[in-house]
Amino acid sequence: MVQILRTCRASAALLLALGTGNAQVAPDAVRTQIITEKSLSLRYEIEAATAAVDACAANHVHPIVVIVDSRGNTKLQMVGDRSNYNLLDEARRKARTAAFMHQSTAALLRALNANPSMRIPPDPEFLVIPGGAPFRAGSEVVGAIGVAGGAPDLVDSCAEAAVNKLREYLHPEEERN
């Protein structure tokens, strides 16, 4: 009980020092860390998703499209006309796999078929079937797309259409001498 009381008093003192400005805090006591990362804007996510839907429509596929950031967090999901909503999770898992593995799910499947002893991380969220592709800005993965709702080769070409749509916007980083 005494230890809990001491911990509460120390926490309260720190909160008081940070919140009110009345108490002095040593400069090293609190450090600010700034995180900088590249990610797609909503405008580009919509353009990519629309490109995937259009490519699928040309092949009479009614897709579900999910775009994730580089950490696999869902940023955009689009359920096309006459699509099967139950495939939303499949599209999300394809996108997440492409983001984490830094390659398309079709390429990953080819690599697994060529080398059956190859291992991928044991993540139940991974789905290694065609239809997922990463977006890159230079060599950095900034997001990924997953497409579901049709034959594997068709949804894979829809995901590639989305990647190709954004290729002109995502320039490689400048080389430094």
Helix content: 40-55%
Assign the CATH topology of the largest domain.
Beta-Lactamase
Helix and strand composition category? alpha+beta
Q: What is the CATH class designation of the largest domain? A: Alpha Beta
- Count all strands and give the number: 4
Q: Give the SSE string.
A: HHEEHHEEH
Gross geometry:
globular
Low-pLDDT ranges: 1-8
Number of helices: 5
The CATH superfamily of the largest domain appears as: Haem-degrading domain
Q: Average pLDDT across residues?
A: 84
What is Rg?
A: 22 Å
Largest β-sheet summary: 4 strands, antiparallel
Question: How far apart are the termini?
Answer: 61 Å
Main sheet strand line-up? 2-1-4-3
Number of domains: 2
CATH architecture of the largest domain: 2-Layer Sandwich
Strand content: 5-15%
Keywords for this entry:
single chain, 177 residues, alpha+beta, Beta-Lactamase, four-stranded antiparallel sheet
Write a brief structural summary.
The chain is of the alpha+beta class and 177 residues long. The chain has helices at residues 2-20, 42-58, 88-101, 105-114, 152-167; strands spanning 64-68, 74-79, 132-137, 140-148. It contains five helices and four strands, in the order ααββααββα.
What does this molecule look like?
The chain has 177 residues and is of the alpha+beta class. The protein folds into two domains: 1-34, no CATH class; 42-167, Beta-Lactamase (2-Layer Sandwich), CATH 3.30.450. The protein contains five helices and four strands, in the order ααββααββα. A four-stranded antiparallel sheet has the order 2-1-4-3. A hairpin with a 5-residue loop joins β1 (64-68) and β2 (74-79). α2 crosses α5. The protein starts with a helix and ends in a 10-residue tail after the last helix.
